[in-house]
Amino acid sequence: MINVMKVPMLDLCAQYATIKSEIDAAVAQVLSAQQFRGGPLLETFEAALASFAGVRHALGVSSGTDALFLALKALPLTPGDEIITSPFTFFATASAIVHAGCIPAFADIEPDTLNLDAAAAEARITPRTRAILPVHIFGQCARMDALIEVAKRHSLLLIEDAAQALGATYQGRSVGAWSDAATLSFYPTKNLGAAGEGGAILTNNDEIAERIRLLRSHGSDAPYHHSVLGFNSHLHTLQAAILHVKLRHLPEWNEARRERAHYYDLRLGQVPGIKLPVESEGAYHVYHQYVIRVPQRDTLRRKLGERGIGCGVFYPAPLYKQPCLSAFVRAEHRCVTAEQACEEVLALPMYPELTPDQQDAVVDVLEEHVSLLPHLQNDEEARCACPPLKEKPSAPGHPRGV
Predict the structure, then answer these.
(1) CATH superfamily of 250-382
(2) Cα separations (Å) of 282 from 119, 324, 402?
């Protein structure tokens, strides 16, 4: 019998319930002080964030999109420079490149991790290329060792879009600590989400950090003195106070996401036709999204919706197929792997408070869907082997080790 339990894609109220007293106290502190821009609370959060990411500087800005834009404006780039990036990501990655006066050059992704492929990126380098901008998609760090080699070989800047991956590591090194500058989003759905919009830029470069401080504040280095043309992009103190509370819980929340991911792996690992997300060797994946690949994805999506189960398609088309970006790609630069992923990917409910019963309800619908695809039955080539389960600390409601 199919489980008829309704399951949201994300439940922010469940998270708030676990830390309500801490959040309420942080908000009350800001309201009592009546300082809504800058100040000690912002500085304390920025210092804590820099320490968490293992970098010298963390600079809060008004959104993840602004983080990308301001990072690019702070780097030694000139109009017309090409920046190689992934077409399999949210629109802001490419739009920030264009708004900064540069040209996005799209390179294909790896078929397993769906992150930017280093070999494909190197193949897209031209005399106009000045930087590579990988996206740590769905919470997993790109294979940065290979990308760093490419960047060094061609004297290119390296910028990380880490909007979905705060807390992820690769070869023991945190996202944000690999590049000239890295960007974060604190959109409410992120693993570390604000009560609204927010973002940050991470860097180990003192000069870049100082330039971002100017750019986010109208280029002002003293009251009514503007040394450069800047912008108005601040992380509000209220958001910083809330994020500082949540940052203390982020490691346990990320670990809980991993527990839920492993439970999905256990339940779905022997279901024919379903490809599970792959955690690359040496990576610590924080599962901003748990994304499978499945035949007849749109049929399954409708079926989940009819059962009251949330899901999402991230992303339905590569960025170069967006009308406003179509001019930035030629036919020979189509990204075949990205296009195939766009036809198959489906994000399942994923958040730290997700229960086994809720996950079972999701899996029941997936099993039913596959059972109606007779050509997949008993097809060993279509089966996605369940990856070995790593020993994990217990998570509420989940058995140890899954």
Answers:
(1) Aspartate Aminotransferase, domain 1 (3.90.1150.10)
(2) 19, 37, 19
